[in-house]
Structure formats: C-alpha cells, structure tokens
Amino acid sequence: MTDVVVEAEPAQAAAIVDAMEAAWEEGWYPHVVVHRPWSTHNPRISGEFARPAAIRAYLLRELAALLAGGARVEITAARRATGFDDPGFFDALDEGADLRAKKLFLFGPERMALSLDRLTHYTGTPAESFQRYVLFTNYRMHVEAFLERFGDAEQPDRAGVQMPAYHHHRPGGTGVSLVEIGVGPSNAKTITDHLAVLRPEAMVMIGHCGGLRNHQDLGDFVLATSYLRADHVLDGVLPTTVPVIPNHRLNQYLIAALERREAPYRLGIVYTTANRNWELNQAQELASMNQARCVAVDMESATIAANGFRYRIPNATLLCVSDKPLHGSPKLSTAARSFYEQSKRTHLEIALDCLDHVRDEHPDGIPNADIRSPDEPLLGGRLTRADEGS
C-alpha cells in the first residue's frame, strides 16, 4: 500500500479514513501518525486501528478537528493484521497502559477487532450498525416501546442472541441504539467492554430498581447521583475506592425531561448488587445501603457507570421503581405486569428526550475532561486546546 500524507484541510479527513479502510481491506492494520506543531510535550502521536469503517463517523470528526488545528496526518500499512487464531493474538489483548507515552487511541487493533466481532455475536447486529447514542435496558418491554416508536429500526438477524440490539439509524450514526442486556452485572460489563471501542457519545441505563425509601411509589423514577458498587465484577481493574458518578450534563437533561412531564423522581445513590436474592441474607447489604443513604437497589447501573468511567464514555442512569422490598411491596407477578405496561413508554421517552438534547447541543460530543487520566488518548473525547497541548 502507498503511504498517505494529508495536510491542513479538514475536508481531507475523508481521504485519511478511506486510506485507513483500504489498508484494512488489504490485510494490514492502518498505522496513523498525527504531528501536532502546537504541542510541546507530545508533538507526535501514533496508533493502529482495526475495521476503521466501524467508527468512520467518529474518525471523520476527530481527524477533521485535528486538521483544522494545523495537524499533519500520515497513514501507513506498517503491520499485517493478526488473525484470531494466531497464538500471538491473545497476548496483544492486554489493556495495561504505558503511562510514559500519550496514545492516539484507547485500544490496540487486536482488542478493537475482537470487540467488534463479539458485538455482532452478542447482539445479532453488525458493529457498524451501532449509533452514537446507546440505551441499555434489562426488560423486553422497553424494546417493545422502542419498536413502537421506531418501526423501521434494525433488529437482530437471528433469534436467541444473548443481548439483542436495535438501531434507529440517522445520518452520520447520530441515531439511537437500544441493547437488551438482561439482568445482572456480568452482561453489563461484557457489552460495555466491547461497545467502548465504538466511542459512543453517551450511554444511558433505563432499568428497574427496588425503591428503598418510604416516600417512593411504584412507578416513581430514580436518577442516580452516585453508585455503591456491590456488584464487584470490576473490582480488579477499578477499585471501589475510586468514585464513580454520572455525567452532569446528562443528568441535567434527564431532570429537565422528568420535570416537563411532571414525573415523580428522586435523586440519590444507587446500590448495585450481583445477588438477585439479597433479601434472603439482608444484614450486611442493608447496613451498607443505610450507611450510604441509598435510594434504590439494582443489578446493572454501577457496572455500566464504572466501565463508562474506565473507558471515558459519558453515562447516566434513569431507573423506575418496580418494587419496595423493605416496605411490604416485593416484586410480584400480577402487580409487576401492570406497572410495566404503564411505565414503559414514559421511561423510554424521557431517555430519548435527553439524547435529543445531547445531539442538538453537543454535536461534537459531551465534554469529558473530568474523567481524563495521565494516559488519556488523543482521540478520546472533547478536549480543549490547552488539554491537547499536554
């Protein structure tokens, strides 16, 4: 493949991405080098990619911004793509960071290729179908409401997939994808591990929860302000001593959408557990809930939020109270069915309202400088010129 050098003109970002895609189609990892004349400490940053077509819209936006700022970009085909069956492929998946060097992209090409393949496996839809805004649900009823709203949404190409995904397409990938992740933190971790390589603009969980306060009714909403991480599935890579909070702008938009509908809601800490039957051995979990003044308990929210923090993806949680286990209102079949039918459309509409505002007010992405780290990648979120000079 002929090396490609693109300079100055933002419109030529398409030529860069075309060259990246051509290298991939020919069996190479496209190697991208960005020369930044304004940066004192990191004037040259490089990285490799796999299946760049899966993040084409993202790459076009990010590269155009760099070119507009005076960057020079080089594309080479420096290394043959490693097959999944190559013994060296597994070793290349380790996410261990080198803090001595600023990276171009958060993930290596092997990690990217594996995640894109697994997204198709788990969701029944191509990774390229995912839109920039992603909703997660643990109930089929939200899928039904989504398909009522978007009758032309893309659906899984086969039955029986573990976490089916549905996509309402818009130009440039600015539509909404909904993933039915099921119940439990393991699926929540799995899907967000792999979805992270697509660099979504926002992730919002719209699940159900148990209300923990007297003054909550079935159908009331809970907007998470923080999480007590009792799910433990990410403890090895993100200690529970690290604070994790939702994105402030997303919460602002969710509050505005709730208040426009005069929907009852409560702000507070959500307790996420991996134990569906925590009520059977209550002492330790209740003590933690009381100490943290939690307002709700669920099984996915903190997991999604923690991975959102790890991978620099703005996220938020809007739950709906489906039972009150501490107040004589456990989740029983008849009452649950009635509640689900009444709440599903409102719940989805509030989340979609929030994402509409994100799309309109932050077309280039929600600023996320508050979750940067020393090894923050260049293509990692909305940063200021001062940030990029580092």
Structure, explained:
It is a single chain. The chain has 390 residues and is of the alpha/beta class. Helix content is 34%, strand content 21%. It contains eleven helices and 13 strands. A five-stranded mixed barrel has the order 9-12-11-10-13, surrounded by four helices. A four-stranded antiparallel beta sheet has the order 1-4-2-3, covered by helices on one side. The longest helix is centred in the C-terminal third of the chain and has 29 residues, at 333-361. It starts with a strand and ends with a helix. 45% of the residues are buried.
Task: Quickly describe the structure.
This protein is of the alpha/beta class and 390 residues long.
The tally of strands reads 13
State the strand order across the main sheet.
9-12-11-10-13
- Straight-line N-to-C gap: 33 Å
Rg (CA only): 22 Å
User: How much strand?
Assistant: 15-25%
Average predicted local confidence, pLDDT: 86
Structural class by helix and strand composition: alpha/beta
Unreliable sequence segments: 381-390
Query: What percent of the residues sit in helical stretches (DSSP H or I)?
Result: 25-40%
Biggest sheet: strands, sense, closure?
5 strands, mixed, barrel
Shape: globular
Our count of helices gives: 11
Order of helices and strands: EHEEHEHHEHEEHEEEHEHEHEHH
